[in-house]
């Protein structure tokens, strides 16, 4: 039986369970789909995928294409709704099975359902394979219904009762079915223009010149773990704001699937065996467990986490104060620490975890604005946007998610004193006015 593997947020050959499944079958074909839904405007008027994210995605797909060709295969690049273009390619190539990485959030599940139906109408079937998390869904020692609403309880249970599966190495060779026309990635500038956007401009103040792709992810890991051994001090530096190495910066590559969390964890274990095991090496995996947790929360609660009051129906009503919201986006609030972070985000597509917590708290608790507006702006800009992590963190800070403490309001002035005592970060990102022509 011939199988078509559809690359989604799994833009890598290494440790890719859905691809591994496709490789077990007979003949193989590979495809990536440029789905126009990614560039639609959401209900708040923001285009879901902004220029920084689009560029990172383009780079990631191009890198994947090169890696596939290096081992003898080929990648089809299709443009259109997945439920239209994938079954057509399957018919052309005579594929009966489609494999893809399983997603768990409403829009992604709707796309799966539509593909399922279209493939079934051709007499084929789909296999949705888990591959996003560190701990496999089947290995966590509880049912999703019994997933604790408190992170620490979840973490202790998985650490005690589950093992992280070993990563699969990338295939060394492959032969692929090939249509007459493989398609190609559109020119980035023209593509962005078609969607009313311009090419992103690099800012020298960015923490990193982030470039997409599995090779870049591997290079970043090599730098952070092996060349500089910054992993050994991660716990002390992780609340930083300035520079490349205060934290791993793995998130954009994880969000696009350029590297798997299991590969990172196995490299941490290798570092612990050969260099040093300490609370920092543990803490990086601890943070990956947070990422898992928000993913499992998304699976447990489905569409509920995307609602205004998410998991706390009795929480206060918050509005959409448009002027205050625009000022927040453009870094024109009364708070210079918040402003610096919002400028960094708009100019680079990245913001530290410390910054994110502060600007999110400020939007919700100081300005009284509905968290969903902030999450939508993050989705447009963040290179590492991930629907489960973004929503999970926003509802947590907004006090409508998984937090036992009723009030998550940050004192942003106090935070600025603690984490930017010398004002270096605020100075770095002060001054230039932002003219946002991003929607
Ligand atoms: C309001 C808000 C929105 C956020 N939105 C996103 C998002 O869309 N995508 C995203 O990946 N992270 C999100 N985060 C979490 C966190 O800020 C980023 O993962 C982190 O800043 C990325 O930098 P890093 O890779 O250097 O992280 P490191 O500190 O080096 O951590 C290593 C990895 O652990 C994971 N991780 C760390 N902290 C968290 C966390 N709080 N939640 C989930 N995973 C975590 C990430 O995959 C990260 O790459 C959000 C946090 C907040 C407060």
Report on this structure:
- It is a single chain.
- The chain has three domains: 131 residues, Rossmann fold; 121 residues, Serine Threonine Protein Phosphatase 5, Tetratricopeptide repeat, CATH 1.25.40; 107 residues, DNA Cyclobutane Dipyrimidine Photolyase, subunit A, domain 3 (Orthogonal Bundle).
- The chain has 18 helices and five strands.
- With 439 residues, it is mainly α.
- The radius of gyration is 22 Å and the shape is globular.
- 47% of the residues lie in helices and 6% in strands.
- The termini are far apart.
- Helix 11 crosses helix 16.
- The mean pLDDT is 96.
- Strands 3-2-1-4-5 form a five-stranded parallel sheet, with helices on both faces.
- Helix 4 links the parallel strand 4 and strand 5.
- The structure holds flavin-adenine dinucleotide (FAD).
- Flavin-adenine dinucleotide (FAD) binds next to helix 9, helix 11, helix 14 and helix 16.
- The site of flavin-adenine dinucleotide has 29 residues, from helix 9, helix 11, helix 14 and helix 16.
Task: List the topology elements.
Elements: E1 3-7, H1 17-24, E2 28-34, H2 51-70, E3 76-79, H3 82-93, E4 97-101, H4 106-121, E5 125-129, H5 151-161, H6 188-194, H7 214-227, H8 234-237, H9 251-255, H10 261-274, H11 279-301, H12 322-329, H13 336-348, H14 353-366, H15 371-381, H16 387-398, H17 412-419, H18 424-428
Parallel strand pairs: 1-2, 1-4, 2-3, 4-5
The chain binds flavin-adenine dinucleotide (FAD).
């Amino acid at each position: 039986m011939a199988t078509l593997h559809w690359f989604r947020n799994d833009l890598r050959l290494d440790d890719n369970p859905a691809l591994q499944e496709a490789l077990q079958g007979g003949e193989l074909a590979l495809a990536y789909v440029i789905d126009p839904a990614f560039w639609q405007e959401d209900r708040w008027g923001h285009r879901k995928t902004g220029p920084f994210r689009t560029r990172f995605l383009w780079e990631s797909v191009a890198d994947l294409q090169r890696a596939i060709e290096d081992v003898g295969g080929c990648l089809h690049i299709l443009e259109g709704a997945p439920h239209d273009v994938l079954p057509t390619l399957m018919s052309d190539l005579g594929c009966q099975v489609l494999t893809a990485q399983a997603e768990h959030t409403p829009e992604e599940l709707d796309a799966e359902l539509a593909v399922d139906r279209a493939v079934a109408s051709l007499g084929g079937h789909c296999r949705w394979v888990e591959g996003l998390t560190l701990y496999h869904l089947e290995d966590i020692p509880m049912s999703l219904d019994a997933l604790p609403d408190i992170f620490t309880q979840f973490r202790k249970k998985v650490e005690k009762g589950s093992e992280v599966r070993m990563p699969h190495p990338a295939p060394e060779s492959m032969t692929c079915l090939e249509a007459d026309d493989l398609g190609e990635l559109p020119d980035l500038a023209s593509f962005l223009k078609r969607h009313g956007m311009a090419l992103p401009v690099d800012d020298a103040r960015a923490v990193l010149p982030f470039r997409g792709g599995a090779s870049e992810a591997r290079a970043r890991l090599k730098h952070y773990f092996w060349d500089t051994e910054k992993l050994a001090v991660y716990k002390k530096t992780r609340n930083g704001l300035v520079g490349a190495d205060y934290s791993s910066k793995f998130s954009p590559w994880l969000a696009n699937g350029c590297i798997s969390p299991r590969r990172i964890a196995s490299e941490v274990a290798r570092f612990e065996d050969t260099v040093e095991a300490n609370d920092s090496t543990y803490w990086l995996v601890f943070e990956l467990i947070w990422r898992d947790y928000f993913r499992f929360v998304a699976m447990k609660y489905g569409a509920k986490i995307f609602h205004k009051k998410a998991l706390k129906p009795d929480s206060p009503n918050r509005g959409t104060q448009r002027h205050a919201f625009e000022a927040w986006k453009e870094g024109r609030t009364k708070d210079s620490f918040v402003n610096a972070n919002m400028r960094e985000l708009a100019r680079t597509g990245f913001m530290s975890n410390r910054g994110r917590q502060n600007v999110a708290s400020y939007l919700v608790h100081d300005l009284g604005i509905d968290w969903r507006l902030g999450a939508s702006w993050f989705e447009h800009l963040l290179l590492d946007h991930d629907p489960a992590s973004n929503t999970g963190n926003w509802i947590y800070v907004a006090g409508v998610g998984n937090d036992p403490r009723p009030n998550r309001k940050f004192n942003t002035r106090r935070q600025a004193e603690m984490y930017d005592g010398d004002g270096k970060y605020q100075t770095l990102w002060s001054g230039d006015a932002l003219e946002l022509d991003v929607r």
